[in-house]
Fold this protein.
Amino acid sequence: MSKLFSYIFPVTKKVQSDYNGILEITWYNGKKHLDAPNANYSYGNLQKVLKSGLQKIDLTNVKHVLLLGLGGGSVIETLRCDFQCNAFVTAIELDHKIIEIAKTEFGWANDPNLTMVCEDAYTFIKGHKDLYDLVIVDLFIDTKVPDKFLEPAFWEDVIKVLSIGGTLLFNASMEQNDRIKIAAIMGQLEQNSLNLQLLENVLGINTLVLAKKPER
Ligand SMILES: C[S@@+](CC[C@H](N)C(=O)[O-])C[C@H]1O[C@@H](n2cnc3c(N)ncnc32)[C@H](O)[C@@H]1O
């Protein structure tokens, strides 16, 4: 019924989260979105931004994906539905309430190829030994990428978990203050021989960084 009404007016439910303030789950034009107080998190423009990045990646041989920042899981929907990519996804999410929302509101409780881990992505990746063909870094608290995810120590760990030939997709902030740090991250990736692509101002919303570990 909510879906039907949403074609006439948006239907919103508010949920107090653990780390992200009051979240809104809104039916709008027949589709459910997840929004933080000042930013779309999932299934709206954010999903379109990440899709633009995925379009640039050859997903043929991607078997295992690491997603840092689950939100409502819209990028997994994009992988599954738009790119027919059924790769195994390990999704790390800090906020327990968001994992609950991903399961109950967005139907991610029963995907056999998805594991959801409630942990700080910074701690999870430190010393992590498994390798991934695709790593998606989509870590925000509202409109801000937390500072520790803009520091070299975190990116050192990210580079280590990328398989040979693997690709990294980083949804970077567009905040003016973060520009210097994002340039430094790109420098660090380049120094580690990754091939870079910068997609600026995607849909006027975010900057994406793509980086590929060479085959040899
Ligand atoms: C923009 S949303 C992710 C959207 C998601 N990738 C999608 O496709 O729908 C950002 C997410 O990062 C999570 N996050 C923020 N800081 C985190 C941290 N330290 N560790 C793990 N997740 C974190 C937030 O709780 C939020 O769910």
Q: What stands out?
A: Residues 1 and 102 are 20 Å apart (CA to CA). The chain has one domain: 44-212. The two ends are 54 Å apart (CA to CA). DSSP finds seven helices and eleven strands in the chain.
